[in-house]
Write a structure and sequence with these properties.
Strands 3, 4, 6, 7 and 8 form a five-stranded antiparallel sheet that branches. Strands 1-2-5 form a three-stranded antiparallel sheet, with no helix packed on it. It is elongated. It is built from one helix and eight strands; from the N terminus they run αββββββββ. It has 101 residues and is mostly beta strands.
């Protein structure tokens, strides 16, 4: 018996991607830390938090306190939602630029 495999259509694949986290904001900047928060993404199993293009942590909540920063330095942050069920990731959130005190 031959098994006929149908290619996964682009629309089907796109529907398996989680939405991008929206409204990423930074607050409470100090010399060594900053708080990040964003809108929760439905059906997301977690979020990768990026600092200057590198993942610094994976979290399951829609907020994160970045620590260990250097004073008077500018950093860029963005977040990616993850779907453990489909092993997919969203496109990145908006990027926020933060300068520590």
């Amino acid at each position: 018996m031959d098994l006929l495999l149908q290619p996964l259509g682009l629309m089907t694949f796109i529907s398996l991607l989680p939405n991008a986290p929206a409204n990423l904001v930074a607050s409470g900047e100090t010399a060594s830390s900053v708080n990040l928060s964003w809108d929760a993404v439905e059906d997301s199993s977690g979020y990768d938090v990026y600092q200057d293009g590198t993942v610094v942590d994976t979290v399951v909540t829609n907020n994160y306190k970045v620590t260990g920063l250097t004073s008077a330095t500018t950093y860029e942050f963005y977040v990616v939602a993850k779907s453990e069920k489909y092993t997919t990731e969203s496109v990145p959130s908006n990027t926020v630029s933060v300068t520590t005190t």
